[in-house]
Amino acid sequence: MARRAGPVTRAGRAVALGVAALTLGTLLAVLLRAETASFGPADWSALRFTVLAALTAATLSVGLAVPASRALTRRRFPGRGLVITLMGAPFLLPVVVAVLGLLAVFGRSGLINRTFEVLGLSPVSIYGPHGVILGLVFFNFPLAVRMVLSGWQAIPAERLRLAAALGFGPDAVFRHLELPMLRQTLPGAFVAIFLVCLTSFAIPLTLGGGPRATTLELGIYQALRFDYDLGRAALLAAAQFALCAVAVGLAARLALPTRFGAGLDRQVERWDTRGWVLRLQDSVVLMLSCGFLMLPLAMIALRGVEGLPEMPASVWPAALRSVLVALVSTALCMAATVTLCAAISAGPAARWIETAGMLPLAASSLVLGTGLFILVHPFASPERLALPVTALVNAAMAMPYALRLILPAHREVEAAFGRLSDSLALTGLARLRWLILPRLRPVIGFASGVVAALSMGDLGVIALFANESQATLPLVVQQLMGAYRMPAAAGASLLLVGLSFALFWICDRGGRRHAAS
Amino acid sequence: MLRLDRLEIRQGDFRLNADWQVAAGERVAVIGPSGAGKSTLLMAIAGFIAPERGDILWEGRSLLQVAPGDRPVSTLFQDQNLFPHLTVAQNLGLGVSPALRLAPVDRARMEEALIRVGLGGLGGRRPGELSGGQQGRAALARALLRARPILLLDEPFAALGPALKADMLGLVSEIAGETGATVLMVTHDPADAVAFAPRTAVVAGGIASPPADTADLMRNPPPALAEYLGRFRA
């Protein structure tokens, strides 16, 4: 069969090479610079804490998600759709903002400690290992709920009807229908979340630190920013990459949940769950889950509104920089992802190209950042390149997510209209313009929203590169928190959340408006 | 002349052989049980399936290295013949220029083609706003515009009712007559073959037999066809 090797295909290969060069090239720079002899006790404990915190957080998130998603799948109540949407919100929530919300609930003068005070109990501190794990669970529990929920929804309604016809009780339904589903779903969800936790930087930065709660990512940052020890930063970055590579290798063997849970608000009729004990159990589980998620969010809004007048003037230029960086990295990421998809569906070397697109999963923002720092600093001052580098790294880091969203839709379009297009010689840019872009507009809009919001809230590589004059909004929030200017930080966070969700909404809406039927 | 020269198509365990030719302007029905490889044969001619060995030639020139869109072929698929997000006019325009760069002359020709198939003035509609029969007509209008010497019909009208299908086949006959196109039409309905194609090729048991006189075939079907037809006789 004659292959289409048009300009789009060639461009796709170039993009794949570029992404590979960015991830592997920076890794090479890191490895060459790493001083292996100096992996000391502090570094071992950072490695240990990184793994332990990720394991604990992933176990807790997935473990708690089982009862929560089960309650969601078998109960109908007003606002159920809202709860499911809420479960998607933390994924787009800037991490520093969420940390601020957690502080308002669990922090020194937060709701919990004030209640303890009234009850005459001694206050608890959120800082330290348990704080890091709490933060990780706050982000990943809802993600786990959505992943497991889609597993629950995948149990065919006919099977449940058959179970009801055979008189299965809740135990029998669990054993014969739910347990097999969980065995399939949970490992993938666990590894996906473990991986996210491994590369988390902003949570340990704000809630961790010290000898007991320093992760590798935090160690990289401290080595670069405070000690200016490139060799040690590079060594830690190499360790971080190895760790991620192992986790990605594990993930590749398991079926990862691919979608962001489209159609999760579908209702499935259940016959086995009418007893009052189960009802009570589900209600308690749902109330606790929602409380855990909603209380910090509510506090962000509450404290944020109070804090708006306290914001320093520096938030405005920072907000502008953040929006610009988000727009540039979204445009970059979308152009690259769509080009990759075209090259993947054109056939030759498809697997190779797809793997290149997923490579950034194994990289972390700080490993990439360290590599770029090493490559850049002989030629230019890293501060001057802070914003372009951040836009580039954000685009690359978001690419696996964008690819996972867009590639299945792209494949569907090619399956439905590929032959017709080929028979009309619709190739290259014409195919992109008249077939791919119009058909994919809704999913591209949604993916753009996700990428823009992720970039908007990113606090990773920017912390390595920027000084005061290039700070983005998340960095300003973090600096205000570090200076204990909490009201100002709360105000700036609210602004950040507002901008992130506005960007997401505009992109998503833009994609769906006048969407092709 | 379209020549299938010792053609062998393989897809996994499936195998199909053909070694025959069709004169320019001829109309041939391709009939046989489902799964026998009728569509596969057409898709090989259209360029979507690479044959294992043998050759496909048009006017003595091999088509194997020619991309689907550059072959002297227009194809009407079973479904998805129109892009649902584009207007009927844009769908037709893509048949003229894939980049949709259309001169006024092209637009005039498009409107003529639409009038010819009975869709005059409907160029601004989306396929979703047309009936099934009208969608078939729009796809035919595009084939008319492209005026490729070979027209392949892979049961594009299977979902239409009998009366509508007869109308469409009548229209295909007229258009093929005007452009002088060679037509290969897949069908599972012997009545279509009798009505449309003077000659018929039977595809069964891994072999696409050379086209034979349709009326003769229906009167004296070979065993494979007899089994497929059951008690049908023309």
What would you note in describing this structure?
The complex is a heterodimer of chains A (517) and B (234). Chain A is an all-alpha fold. Chain A has 2 domains: 1-30 and 311-517, MetI-like fold (Orthogonal Bundle), CATH 1.10.3720.10; 34-217 and 280-308, MetI-like (MetI-like fold), CATH 1.10.3720.10. Chain A contains 20 helices and no strands. Chain A has helices spanning 7-33, 41-74, 80-92, 95-106, 111-119, 129-153, 157-165, 170-198, 202-207, 216-225, 230-253, 276-307, 315-346, 350-358, 365-376, 386-423, 428-457, 461-465, 473-482, 486-512. Chain B is an alpha/beta fold. Chain B folds into 2 domains: 2-72 and 148-229, P-loop containing nucleotide triphosphate hydrolases (Rossmann fold), CATH 3.40.50; 86-147, no CATH class. Chain B is built from 8 helices and 11 strands. Chain B has helices at 38-46, 88-96, 104-116, 132-146, 162-179, 190-196, 214-219, 223-229; strands at residues 2-11, 14-22, 27-31, 53-58, 61-62, 73-76, 150-154, 182-187, 199-204, 207-208, 212-213. In chain B, strands 1, 2, 3, 4, 5, 6, 7, 8, 9, 10 and 11 form an 11-stranded mixed β-sheet that branches. The longest helix of chain B is centred in the C-terminal third of the chain and has 18 residues, at 162-179. Chain B starts with a strand and ends in a 5-residue tail after the last helix.
The fraction of residues assigned to DSSP E strands of chain A is under 5%
Tell me the CATH superfamily of the largest domain in chain A.
MetI-like
Uncertain regions spanning at least 5 consecutive residues of chain B: none
Total individual domains of chain A = 2
Structural class by secondary-structure content of chain A: mainly alpha
Radius of gyration of chain B: 18 Å
Report the helical percentage of chain A.
Answer: over 70%
Please, how many domains of chain B?
2
CATH topology of the largest domain in chain B, what is it called? Rossmann fold
Tally of strands of chain B: 11
Write down the Rg of chain A: 24 Å
